[in-house]
């Protein structure tokens, strides 16, 4: 049986040594034995488990609960409970497919919202307190969204107060819609930037998702394929 040291595994996978140690600490790989001089001894099985971890952890978190599902699956694989891991993976894939369908509905709502505001073509300049009433959320919520980098609001050159135009109103209402679906803050930020790019060019694109939920679906399909092969070996 061929064995490897931490640096060997890191080189094979293409990551830092600390990443390998972090996966071990997180329980994503089976128990790692030590040599007489204290060095970790990895096997081909560990390398396979690390590759699977890289496969399902490489994409951004779409929704917070998903990372807990992924962690549970990886820990189950590390315990060599492949039947259970396969069952969990298939159930998670079904959830992802439902989330993908929900996102398609959400995108339709967002496009209708944007089109409505563009057609109205209002020239407005509101204060944050006025925006709070318009959007239907508290000022603290708006401040929190801004602090989290979900949108950048221009300021008045004379008094440095924030100026909320129709553009910001569209983005804030869009954020409110997306937040209802429990996307991660990081994911929402990227979705908003995609929506507003090139003067809302997204409005005219068909069959395009906002989040990497499609990538997550492919990851799980690949994982299920790998697990089936592992069961056959």
Automatic annotation (TrEMBL):
Single GO MF annotation: DNA-binding transcription factor activity
Keyword annotations of the record: DNA-binding, Transcription, Transcription regulation
InterPro entries to which the protein is assigned, alphabetical: DNA-bd_dom_put_sf, MerR-type_HTH_dom, MerR_fam
Transmembrane segments: none
Start and end residues of each HTH merR-type domain: 3-48, 129-194
One Pfam family matching this protein: MerR_1
Name assigned to this protein: MerR family transcriptional regulator
Species in which this protein is naturally found: Clostridium intestinale
